[in-house]
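Design review, sub-item: ligand-bound model
Attendees: FS, YL, KQ
YL presented the inputs for the flavin-adenine dinucleotide complex:
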Amino acid sequence: MLIKLLFLLKSLTIPSKLFALTKFIKHLCNSILIMSKSFQFSAETRQTFIEHHMQEFDLLVVGGGITGAGIALDAASRGLKVALVEKHDYAWGTSSRSTKLIHGGLRYLKQMEIGLVKEVGSERAIVHRNARNLVIPEKMLLPIIKKGSLGMFSSSAALWVYDFLAGVRSKERRKMLGKESTKKTEPLLDSSKLIGGGLYYEYRTDDARLTIENIKKAVEHGAVCLNYAKFIKPIYENSKIAGAEIKDLINNTNFELKAKCVVNATGPWVDLIRKKDNSLKGKRLQLTKGVHIVVPFTKLPLKQAVYFDVKDGRMIFAIPRQGKTYIGTTDTVYNELVDEPITSKEDVKYLLKAVNNMFPTVALKSSHVESTWAGLRPLIHEDGKSPSELSRKDEIFESESGLLSIAGGKLTGYRKMAERVVDKVIARIDFSGAKACQTAHLPVFGADFNSSDEISQLIIDLTSANKALGLGVEQIKSWIFRYGTETSKIIEIFQELLKTHTDIEACATIAELNYCVENESVLRLEDFYIRRSARLYFDYGNIDKYLDDSAKLLQDKLKYSDEEIAEQIAEVKRQMQLAVAFKN
Ligand SMILES: Cc1cc2nc3c(=O)[nH]c(=O)nc-3n(C[C@H](O)[C@H](O)[C@H](O)COP(=O)(O)OP(=O)(O)OC[C@H]3O[C@@H](n4cnc5c(N)ncnc54)[C@H](O)[C@@H]3O)c2cc1C
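KQ shared the predicted structure:
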C-alpha cells in the first residue's frame, strides 16, 4: 500500500511554482522506494545516486574493477560514506580479461616470491569462503616432462611448499603421480615425453561476476556506485585533493563529487590519473598484454585443467569450462595504453603451438578458435626484468596532494589489498568511528552459503521445484554459479514470461537480462553479453539468437530510442568481431 502511494506521488505533475517542492517530493519518494525494495541497483537507482552527488563522501574510489570494488566494499562495511565511479561498465578493464583463477601463483615460487605466494595462497581460502558459488575448487594437473622446467623431485617439493604456505586443507593437498597414473589422468598427454605429474588444487572464478558481486555488496552497505561515470580531473582545497569532476556518460553532464579522500584504483590507467594529479614521479606502471583463446571442448577434451610448460620456459593453462576449453596466457610488454587490446595472429599461433606440442593428437588450428580476449596487466616497472619476471606484488603510492594510488597486485589478492588501502584511508581522514576490517567473513552478494553442500542442495531443490516449467539442471546450475541465492528471483521473472511466451530458452535469456537490468546496473547490451554472463567468450555461437529480443527488453525498460538501441546492437556485433579479429 505504502509503495503504491509512493509510486502515485512520484508520478504526480504539479504546476510550476510548486516545481521545487515536487522535485523534492519525487526525490524523497525515489529514495524511500529504493530503500523499501529489498535490493535494487538499476538505471533508476543510478539516477537517484547522481542526484545525491552534492553530499560529501569520506572516500571516492576511482575505478570499478576488482580492486576498486574490493575497496568500496571494505570501506562501506567499516562505516565510511563511499562513492565509486567507473568510466565504462564494472569490470570493463582487466577484471573481465584475466585467466579467471583464484590462485596462489605456483610460478612465483620459482622467483622466490615467498611472501606473495603465502599471502595470495591464504587469500584463496578466504575468497572461496566469501564467494562459494563463484570461486570453486579446480583440480589442476602439472605434467612433468623430459627437458621441462621442473623435475619430479623439484615439482613435489614446490607443490609441498605451495600447500604449506597457503595452509591448504588436507583433502586438497598435492598428490604426486607416476607416468602411468599421469597418462591415465590425462590421456591426451604425449607418453614419449612424460615423466610423471602432480595434482593440486586451484580455484576457478568468473572475474567480472566477482567484481559485480563486490559492488552490489558495497551498495547494500550504502556505497554509491556509478558505472559510465568518468573521473575528469581532481578538485583541490588548500592544495589537498578534495574530490573530482565527474562526467556522467549516460546523461552527458558533468558534476563535482566531494570526498575527504580519493583512491585511484584504475588498474592500467593508474599513471594517467597520477598525471592529472601532477604526481607521476618515481615508480611507474609497466603494462604487459595477456591473451586467451577459446575452443570447443570437443577439440581439446581435457579431463581436468592442466598447467603446462611452454618451450620458452613459460607456463600456460588449459581449462575446460561450459562446453569449451580456454587456453592462456601470453605475457608480452605493451607500451601503449589502449582501451581495447586485441588478440593478434601471433598470440594465437603461440598458444596453439604450445597446446599442440603438449597434446600432439589434438592438432588444434586457428579455425577451431571460437573466441578470444586480451587484457593488460598493471604491473610495476622494474629495470631489466622480462614481463614474466615482473613482480605481481601491489604497492600504494601517496601523492603530496593526498591522492592514494594502488598499483600491481592480482585478482586473487584483492580483498587484502583493499584492507591495506582502507587502513590508510582511515588514518588519513582520522575517522575514529570506523570498524575494524569486516571482509574476512563477509560473503559477497548472493553468496550466503555455509558450505559447498548447500550449493549442491540448492541446485537439487530448484531443479525439482521448476522441472514442470521446463528448466533443466544445467540452466539452474549455470544461474546458481553466476547469481547464487539470487537465482530464485530470475526464476520468478522466467515464470512471469512463460505466461505470454513459449520459447523456454528465450525466456531464460530474457529473465536473466531482466534481473541484471534491475539489480546489476546493466545499462547497455554489451554489459550483459560480455561481463554479466560471459556469453561473448563461452557462448559466442548463440549470441545472435536472442540479441533482438534482448535489445527490445532493454529499450522498453530503459527507454532507449530506436537509434540508441540500434547502436548498442552494432556495438555487441563489433565486440564479436574484435574477439576474432585475428582471423582477418
Ligand atoms: C591476461 C591476464 C590474466 C590474469 N590472470 C589472473 C588470474 O588468473 N588470477 C589473478 O589473481 N590475477 C590475474 N590477473 C591479474 C588481474 O586480472 C588484475 O590484477 C586485476 O584484474 C586488476 O584489477 P584492477 O581493478 O586493478 O584493474 P581493472 O580491472 O583494469 O579496473 C580499473 C578500472 O578503472 C576504470 N577507469 C580507468 N580510468 C578511469 C577514469 N578516468 N574514471 C573512472 N574509471 C576509470 C577502467 O575502466 C577499469 O574498469 C591477470 C591479468 C591479465 C592481464
